Amino acid sequence: MPEQILRDKERRTPCGDRMSNSPTRSGPRALGDLIRADTRLGALARAASSRLDLADCARQQLPEQLADAIVSCNLRPDGTLVVTAASPEWAARLRFEADAILSGCRGNWPAAARVQFRVGTEGTGP
Q1: Which of 124, 63, 116, 119 is nearest to 90 (CA)?
Q2: In this structure, is residue 6 part of a structural domain?
Q3: Residue 73: CB partners within 8 Å, gap ≥ 6?
Q4: Does the predicted model carry a pTM greater than 0.90?
Q5: Hey, how many other C-beta atoms are within 10 angstroms of the C-beta on 85?
Q6: Residue 84 class from Cβ within 10 Å (0-12 exposed, 13-18 middle, 19+ buried)?
């Protein structure tokens, strides 16, 4: 009896849409297919990778203690390199290194024209 109840119960996604109990014809898709260059997920993966590379580049321009204060980085379309620091105190100290960060990152991100510092925590981005 419980098996019949489970089979008859409609499965729904978190958004409330109906889920099909039947397997798809094509089956599971490979991760490589999901993050192809021409998909939204692929564009998101490239953007995330670029931000990680940018943050690593900014950290390489600094002494280790200061480098650890950088939470994340982002390059806005207007050329602003946004560096997110772990605290207001670290942001203040990082401001003294703005020229070094900017000149070091321009090799791979030539559009970087200015640096802006903001305060964030782990898990938040610019």
Answers
A1: 119
A2: no
A3: 51, 54, 55, 57, 58, 81, 82, 83, 84, 126
A4: no
A5: 21
A6: buried
Q: Is 68 domain-assigned?
A: yes
Measure the CA dihedral 54/89/124/106, to 10°: -10
Q: Retrieve residue 110's tokens.
A: 């030539």
CATH number at residue 102: 3.30.300.20
pLDDT per residue over 39-92, tens digit each? 788 888 888 888 999 999 999 999 998 999 999 999 999 999 999 999 999 999
Asked, for residue 24, whether it belongs to a domain, the answer is no
Six-digit token string for 53: 């590379």
Report the C-alpha gap between 89 and 44 in whole angstroms.
32
SS3 46: helix
Total count of domains within the chain? 1
Domain limits for position 48: 31-119
